[in-house]
Amino acid sequence: RDVDVAGTSIPAGSRVVIMYASANRDETLFPDGDSFEPNRDNLSQHLSFGKGNHFCLGASLSRLEAVVALEELSRRIHSFSLSSDNEVQYQPSFMLRGLKRLDLELTTS
């Protein structure tokens, strides 16, 4: 049967795709949701690792790995910038938009 969800009509038989990544961009929960703001007051409410029974078991390990990687990079690299011949290309994807590659020029300390 046809249904109306939040003001959007969905005809019977339609395919519906849930875009999980959009949840972290909900401006009612995350003001300026498209901006990278690692110090948000409500940072713990993001859904990157799922929620409830479906929470990622590896979330703590992933966070620790990110901290260690960033600490090591900041210790070894004095500065970085986009490579002068950098051509931004995105990986085609129906679900998430990501870069194919990110060419950087690094200066070690």
Structure description:
- There is one protein chain.
- With about 110 residues, the protein is of the alpha+beta class.
- It has a domain at about 5-75.
- It contains one helix and six strands; from the N terminus they run ββαββββ.
- The protein has one helix at about 60-75; strands at about 5, 10, 75-80, 90, 100, 105-109.
- The protein has a two-stranded antiparallel ribbon with strand order 1-2.
- β1 and β2 form a beta hairpin.
- The protein is extended and about 65 Å long.
- The model has no long low-confidence stretch (mean pLDDT about 90).
Number of helices: 1
Query: Tally of extended strands?
Result: 6
Structural classification = alpha+beta
Q: Mean pLDDT across all residues, rounded?
A: 88
- The helix-strand sequence is EEHEEEE
Helix content: 10-25%
Strand content: 15-25%
Characterize the overall form: extended
End-to-end distance: 64 Å
Profile the largest sheet: 2 strands, antiparallel
Using only C-alpha atoms, the radius of gyration works out to 19 Å
Low-confidence stretches: none
Order of neighbouring strands in the sheet with most strands: 1-2
Seen as an oligomer or otherwise, the chain set is single chain
